[in-house]
Amino acid sequence: MSDELRESCGVIAVCGNPEAANLVYLGLYALQHRGQESCGIVSRSENRLRVAKEMGLVADAFDRQKLLQLIGDSAVGHVRYSTTGDTRIENAQPILVDCAKGSIAVAHNGNLINSPDIRADLERRGSIFQSTSDSETIIHLIAKSRAARITDAIVDALSRLKGAYSLIILTQEAMIAARDPKGFRPLVLGKLGDGWAIASETCAFDLIGAEYLREIEAGEVIMIKNGRLKSYFPFPQRKKSQCVFELIYFSRPDSTVFGKPAHTVRKGFGAMLAKESGVHGDVVIPVPDSGICAAIGYSSESGVFREKGFARNHYVGRTFIEPKQSIRYFGVKLKLNPIRDVVQNKEVIVVDDSIVRGTTCKKINDMLRSAGAKAIHYAVSSPPYRHPCIYGIDTPSEGELVANANSIEETRKYIGADTLSYLSIEGMLSVLGDEAKDYCTACFAGKYPVVHRLPKASQFDLFKYSSINIR
Amino acid sequence: MSDELRESCGVIAVCGNPEAANLVYLGLYALQHRGQESCGIVSRSENRLRVAKEMGLVADAFDRQKLLQLIGDSAVGHVRYSTTGDTRIENAQPILVDCAKGSIAVAHNGNLINSPDIRADLERRGSIFQSTSDSETIIHLIAKSRAARITDAIVDALSRLKGAYSLIILTQEAMIAARDPKGFRPLVLGKLGDGWAIASETCAFDLIGAEYLREIEAGEVIMIKNGRLKSYFPFPQRKKSQCVFELIYFSRPDSTVFGKPAHTVRKGFGAMLAKESGVHGDVVIPVPDSGICAAIGYSSESGVFREKGFARNHYVGRTFIEPKQSIRYFGVKLKLNPIRDVVQNKEVIVVDDSIVRGTTCKKINDMLRSAGAKAIHYAVSSPPYRHPCIYGIDTPSEGELVANANSIEETRKYIGADTLSYLSIEGMLSVLGDEAKDYCTACFAGKYPVVHRLPKASQFDLFKYSSINIR
Amino acid sequence: MSDELRESCGVIAVCGNPEAANLVYLGLYALQHRGQESCGIVSRSENRLRVAKEMGLVADAFDRQKLLQLIGDSAVGHVRYSTTGDTRIENAQPILVDCAKGSIAVAHNGNLINSPDIRADLERRGSIFQSTSDSETIIHLIAKSRAARITDAIVDALSRLKGAYSLIILTQEAMIAARDPKGFRPLVLGKLGDGWAIASETCAFDLIGAEYLREIEAGEVIMIKNGRLKSYFPFPQRKKSQCVFELIYFSRPDSTVFGKPAHTVRKGFGAMLAKESGVHGDVVIPVPDSGICAAIGYSSESGVFREKGFARNHYVGRTFIEPKQSIRYFGVKLKLNPIRDVVQNKEVIVVDDSIVRGTTCKKINDMLRSAGAKAIHYAVSSPPYRHPCIYGIDTPSEGELVANANSIEETRKYIGADTLSYLSIEGMLSVLGDEAKDYCTACFAGKYPVVHRLPKASQFDLFKYSSINIR
Amino acid sequence: MSDELRESCGVIAVCGNPEAANLVYLGLYALQHRGQESCGIVSRSENRLRVAKEMGLVADAFDRQKLLQLIGDSAVGHVRYSTTGDTRIENAQPILVDCAKGSIAVAHNGNLINSPDIRADLERRGSIFQSTSDSETIIHLIAKSRAARITDAIVDALSRLKGAYSLIILTQEAMIAARDPKGFRPLVLGKLGDGWAIASETCAFDLIGAEYLREIEAGEVIMIKNGRLKSYFPFPQRKKSQCVFELIYFSRPDSTVFGKPAHTVRKGFGAMLAKESGVHGDVVIPVPDSGICAAIGYSSESGVFREKGFARNHYVGRTFIEPKQSIRYFGVKLKLNPIRDVVQNKEVIVVDDSIVRGTTCKKINDMLRSAGAKAIHYAVSSPPYRHPCIYGIDTPSEGELVANANSIEETRKYIGADTLSYLSIEGMLSVLGDEAKDYCTACFAGKYPVVHRLPKASQFDLFKYSSINIR
Question: Does C399 touch chain D (CB under 8 A)?
Fold first, then answer.
């Protein structure tokens, strides 16, 4: 259950539309699953950039009055999730600064693995950092570039970065979008009337009525100025490393990701899992909602009927007060309740998209047994998740990943299932077909396509201050 | 799509537990789907009643500090939805008053059709009303009863009422629960350790760990005092009129309602619909989430594969700001987006639980066609909804119900479907089996089991003041 | 220092003005010193009453949008302070109900000493009470009156009441104002264009631009209907008992109270105090702000120069977090800081309007000595406060009143002054001149002009429930 | 009336106390008059800095939970007022950054007149700016300094600055305080137990119980490390330019400013004004509260009795909704109401501390005449305010200063007074005695002691983006 993993960000931009900020706001809402901690929009009107940022959800943060102040025909927005203890308005994006290149706003999705080095180097050269976000590094490099033209300065800055970035930059004259040469994180291009739209996922286009044109390519830099779009490929071409977990879990099922419809790929994973595992039972039940697509594939392939095994509570709030005499499976039960009539006296095949820590799976299985399930076959539509991501997904440390420290059999025992099946890496790749080679599978296989001597964790040790988020 | 109908309330009580208020709070959260406008809890400790009420959702309204103040081993809670223009804290429940019988708190689910008459009569006799809620009427009648014992006073009061009530009353000495002789709205009894629990639905019991014992019977009055429960049947027995819409839509699928598991009954409705309609297609897609259970039944019966046709946005807020150049299907699109790959070039069978106004269905069908659906067979797992409910469901007026003013063929055209199938009343009843006679089907058939000369609407005209809810 | 006494309420009404609610809102702001716990406004437009109530200050509770909804040319408002533990939105006023006389809103300033009896009697006859406020009693009596005309019903109800009431009642047809026959609490009448204004104090008239006409007389009932005002004196004439503490402390110094300018009377008290005490020193310093007016009189009479002895912090919030190593005189120091240069090596005459508990005076004197004062002559411009008020002022119990349990000499020692002078009752009355007989001096002399067998405290014991104010 | 001028900031620090943040919080509350827009605290515990910042007042921004998170024995705080349209959380201080010198927090009171130049230069060299505050410039210079030791880097940075700064800097090892060589803005040093306190004004020391030791000298840099304090004078000595307006208006009357008790100096100004003007009348009334101290001096010197001419409303909120039929003198009347009995038929001498735009004075005089004043002698305890401050006070532009564009006689007519007297510059200086030469009088005389080619206004034009403050 990938609830324990967090996509770090979502980005969206609109240019050439008189209601740019309002459309970006709706686009952020469509991308809300990519980040729930903070959100922000920068708009541009006649060379002047305006910003509004806030902690919390898009729907709560913006009202009509605020959107009316974000005037102009271009705007860029950002939703963010962040690592624990780091929830600060200072880290909200887009980052808007003044520098020799004028006013610049940057919205970034991804993680820069050499950011601590660059940061240390920039500090040695006198730069100051006001956030813990590695995205601030990018804007420093742009500001410090000796290139005269802003696009050159951006290319100059990007050439120093290692790791993952899907970026949107708004300057006083242009909108620039860029995707790292490995193409870790998604970024798509769309047409919106006479103007343009750029977003992390196509589901944002669907809501605002933009037409999906194509992916922004790995290594591509796009500049939109005076309504015209130019494309650049300033970096040497490299083997692609698209994040396969976008297709497993992160992206919305209605999005087209890396050129593929996410829902269909997930069904493929589920079907391949059924084929590989050969496990049968009385009924297939997905762990809602992340296991639903794969369960459809599993059911289709295995011929086992798919049922609704859990009712969800849709009014989930931030925190709930547990009684002192604590309630069994409290955390999970607040969200899910087994439907007894469906699982009682049944051999159930529980389809989940992944197992991270395993603690939630254990509670789910315990609940299912309490509800009368005769046997539980846990089927996971991705390979064992063994290695932390360093390209923009917030993952628990290696030691916390149940599949890192334990064999499959040990994991099965831990989560309390009768059988436990994972999709194999090969099976997963075969679903992706010819493009299988274009994907990063580091979290499963442990081979990181881009490395840097400093481990990710140390980046935060370098940073010596913390913050309290008031209100 | 029954989003346009609103259950008016949910009730829950716990007695004989040192953390009564905390458990009631969690129970209210499990019943949140029955009312999102206001919530409240009254607790009792040593003959003293304490109250906390608030507009909004349970998770936002209560924090640890507030729950700690609601001391005592008995508590009753209420969630409420209300009619438009009537969102006032004064209408929040439980209603807590002081009267000759001492302090009394009342939590009520249902609608009293003779309330305007009683109210007018009470006013003539000098009573004052501080809310527009008909539940206030009940407490007036209790206070005015000449019966010495509180249970007698309650029976005395209830005997004056016509319509629907599932009530929980907390006094300084006892907890009393009552269900009207027709049994319109559900009410269930559970055991929680040494104490008791009472709730609108069993899903609340599942969360707090109470064991479901049985329904409180139609016409039954239960009194719990000093840990002991007594049951009374003070009214003449009448033919039952349980609300069939609880099984179609209102109750959570994991609840047991009127003794039946809601999910299973819904599957039965879907299967019968498939049998009756005989409509086939390439794929069955439910309107999420209310159509899911019936779609499972439809798919099972028809053999047509069930797919996920829509992605839902789970971050739905209260209001969204639409751009001036309005977005097509805006309201629906904020919640649902078709998954193109699933519906493109397909004959889709869309399974919905009901059609109320029809406007949402029309937008859904338009979206599906935009996403490439070749044909749309709209299949509704309940009969045409033609008559407003007067027993506790907030329904649009007759003229707004698309099935009241239009033939099925006209409705089909209006919602833009290729075919439109409804479950027949007979089909619906056959799924309910022997107990079919115990259900109210007034909204479909128009035969109201309990009537009173005043139409419901006039109740609000009698009331001459309105209120503004500050914050 | 009368910070420890609390005026219970302020009332204001405007009729015959298209912006009635907006003017009432401003009037409430001018009367904010009479109650800071909750505020409310009821407006009337075409026989329909609309209400908005909130906990907190007027400036926070109302915004433009809310005022715009309170349409109509008549409105009544209320600010309230309440006894500890009793801060509930249910107690906010105006109370708006529906009854046989139609919709009625009541705003009440004062305290009804026979309310517990009436309440018990009403409960016996079947009435229910939703608040702990004795004002709810009034509306019950009106509703229960057999009189056909609303004014008759109001007179009927008022004739049952003992104690203090300055009332404004808004019905669907008329505005009625009434003052009890003893005239305990103030109520004034003004002209505002073609319409009328009624308020607790004239300072509200000054802000909204109304012209002060006269007091509403003790025992007078005024009805304004269709723009015309009628005056009634339905009760037998009685000796007046105007609250002398309104002139000592409660009313704003710019108000005309009981026909007298408050500031001038306070100066008179201070001058008489100087005459009686004969105490001299180097400098007169008032305890800000309540001692300022009397200090002017004291200085004028004694010839001792008046200085500013304390700086006030004007940003006082509700609560402040004290360090664990607590700060000396913390509570007082947050508000006041001695100006060292003024008091150092001086014999200071500190003029205060009253001493209630004495704890604050003690801290003030300690601070003054720390700041170098050579001697402290504490001069109080009212007699020793010995007896709790039962007519609408929230007073500590007898035992907490320092002057009740202690001799003047003991009090002097307790508060740490070198001398302590009080104004004598005779001195106070002589300042009031011929009307001295029209004042209630029960808090000083202990002779209560209206009594009832039940002591005030028991009223709250009768009431068996409490409430938690959420947000 | 100096309400139209705004002190830009207040600063406070505590080190060597286990409750440093809590004491800083109280100190900020005592300095709230120096800035009401935003507030912030940075604490240090074991080399780690923690920050909390918020828009709004200190009492609203911090609660116990937040203070508990600001652990450590050293803390620095800041309150800020800012120019219109510039109310952004990004501008709140202390500014906390990471740089080559480690984590550094800066709290700044003052205005740097060469900041735009330095900023442009820094941007040319690649720096980025995230706020419009000139305080950010200081931290950039520190970060860029080649000096190895932090104190040297600070001195290096400060040597580049022109203008006014009273600074407190918290690093991972030390607390540093600095005051510019001209000493424009105040800064004082105190002892608090074994530790130290630094603040803008001594009134903050009084509240937290610190003992005032001395001013931090103009041009002095103080470093506190491991409990020991060192003092440096790294800059060439210069003629002092202490802001005389701190003594006229900004500082609290109970503070000792530039070594002088503010209240006593203000009395001196009032007495000198009385001597110079020779105006007599029936009564002296101060404009509250800023005119009170001078009025005491005026009364004392002239022998004219001082009265309370106005009642103040102490519940002033941010905004009030004015009726459409607007109320006369609305803005002033919300705060002040003349006490009719005091001014009626009197020749009143109104003592004010200054006249800035003159619009408020005009309303005050109009109100006084409406209240019956026979003649109004307006007496101002400072010279005509003719030139904007460029050293840290937010002043209207030259054209808006009534004394800049108009003769005294024209001003008198404009404000509607019978006579208008100002204190002369010579008179003002004579009150200051031997130190008169140490004061800046640029706002009166127009001779700016430190100049720079760029006018202050242009600094904001350089900055190209604006921000919306959400919530």
Answer: no
